[in-house]
């Protein structure tokens, strides 16, 4: 008898486990993606077509334009406002049967790819971007040179960037970079081809400064350093481009192309005017000019005002009199308060003395 009871308990327990597992499977939830502007149909689990269900989105009734077809919810021309978690409930008991996380977005466009070497001849990097998709989008990158696949080092911070080492220097064979963008709604790819020399572009010069030259009100001594990212300045020298203008002007006064020198003296500055100065760099043989450096502001030498000393002649105003008697129309010179008080005391002193004698 005991064995029979034990067997029945095991059977009941197994049935409970099966039912619980089925419910867990039904409520596991899933993600669903749909393109902006299209209709989307969401199925409530594996319920039969004649089952009546109700739907909620983020815990509230579905207010967007929709229709119900048995266990299915159909939303019309979805947009970003339709994003959310949709839950379905079997009627009439109202038991929750399923939920779907809806994400509305776009398939990726063709990636726009740009490649550049700012540390030639060590390596180059490529970056790319696509139009906003509103849903997670991923990228695959493949780089070919001389029918060989090169190692691609993906940037650990920027998902849309990678770096590739040059397999050789001064190669005339083109490079091909294939970038494929894909997400839950589709994929697109772009092939970008270039020659080695065309992508060499240094970073801007660093530490640009300018200082006035003593007693030279039209000169500024400008200096700078080559970009720290440029690895071999001796084997691959840079030339520089200098531009400057007064702050009060919008047009650049002069633009000067220089050799590999990292300094230059401006000789035609406007005296006393504040200047804006920038420098760009370029490999002497290949590539393109860098971006401009951070603007630096400087003013040429301004002489100190002449100090006043005992030997310095200083113009002082002199008083002139046209008549010993001031004119009645001319303002009278104010008397010192002390002198006026003295005359008043002199006038009243005999009277005060007489009054004192009467009391005595």
From TrEMBL:
SUPFAM superfamilies: Fibronectin type III, Immunoglobulin. One of its GO terms (biological process) is cytokine-mediated signaling pathway. The keyword Repeat applies. InterPro entries: FN3_dom, FN3_IL27B_N, FN3_sf, Hematopoietin_rcpt_L_F3_CS, Ig-like_dom, Ig-like_dom_sf, Ig-like_fold, IL11/IL27_subunit_beta. Transmembrane segments: none annotated. Residues 309-322 have a biased composition (Low complexity). Residues 37-88 form the Ig-like domain. Belongs to the type I cytokine receptor family. Type 3 subfamily. This is Ciliary neurotrophic factor receptor. It comes from Oryzias latipes (Japanese rice fish).
